[in-house]
Design brief:
- Helix content is 30%, strand content 0%.
- The chain is built from two helices and no strands.
- The chain has helices at 3-14, 51-59.
- The longest helix is centred in the first third of the chain and has 12 residues, at 3-14.
- The radius of gyration is 13 Å and the shape is globular.
């Protein structure tokens, strides 16, 4: 998927707008493992990180919070 599609998926998961500012072209194949705030999903291990930590550690990207304006 593209990083723009990843941003859209993260927006849905986080229920906040996520904007792709990576400037990375092309499509990528990856797996992102994290524990949702509501608790582990079936088959997930309890030691999986938050989505914020997972994005940084597993994809090398950073989610930054900004005030609208």
């Amino acid at each position: 998927m593209t990083t723009a599609v990843l941003a859209t998926m993260l927006s849905r998961q986080l229920e906040h707008d996520v904007t792709d500012e990576t400037g990375l072209p092309g499509k990528y194949d990856f797996q992102l493992d994290w524990t949702p705030d509501a608790g582990p999903c079936p088959g997930a291990t309890a030691d999986q990180p938050s989505i914020f930590t997972a994005v940084q550690q597993q994809l090398g990207l950073r989610l930054e919070s900004r005030k609208p304006g």
